[in-house]
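hey can u check if this looks right to u? its 298 residues, i copy pasted from the old doc so theres a chance i mangled smth
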Amino acid sequence: MQTLYSVEAMETTKPGEPDKIFHTKIEDTHELLSYLATYLTQVALYAESYAIRKANKHLPTESDRSVNTKIAGNTILWEILGNASFKKSQEKFKTLYLFEKEQIRKSFLKLLDTPEYKEYISIEARDRKSEKGILEFILENLMLSDADFLSDGEEKLIQWTDDMDAAIVQLKIALDKPSAVDFLEPLSEDKMAFGLNLLHTVTEKNEYCLELIKPKLRNWDVERIALLDMILMKMGVCELLYFETIPTKVTLNEYIDIAKEYSTEKSGHFINGILDNIHKELEVQNKIHKKSFNKTLK
């Protein structure tokens, strides 16, 4: 979608340029994934620095000498840190140098005051669920819900808004299976192939898609329809016609959600109505042929 939007905005495109843009978009997601994972790990690791600073006070109290550093030994944290591709991503994108120590410190101090953290450190034993849970808590509440963190990220990474959702999904997968994730290749070969195939199909079938879409617009002026909405409709039409393994219900539902996420609430209903209308017409013409892996899906 982002690649097609970039291509549409260009007056002319050279052969192979859409593919180049597509791969650049994927690279941007790699960088953002590394950025988020690095910040998350640095906040957890800061427990050690905090404990040392407290213990080295001029007149440390008993409380200063006994700061709990359990989170710095979080098992999932160390599996991520031990992931060779994560280390390479940090070197490639220089993500360790993108944060101020004060920024990390502030996030950790906010963590200290939360009931979730206090509950986590109150239990000596480690289990997979709680280890993962506290890292997810940091991600959701001290990063993605923190205005300062979000503002800082937007200033440093141009792809922040466009690629955030994809990077978050990949980071959550990493928290679930930290050793198995490739931080430099967050998309599987199958997903990469699908993305390129959809890009090529929409590009090649552009005029035919417009022939199907325009008659359904009725009183709408084609030129006044949001570019993003038109791109999503063309993508949906191509999935209906040329991707036989994707059930039609999945296509229709997915593009409603994408439109709501990236365009407007009204766009979701508008695109759904157009695609559903085209789908019914193509069905009558016997132009939609899907492989049925599950008879409950059509």
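Residues 12 and 18 are 11 Å apart (CA to CA).
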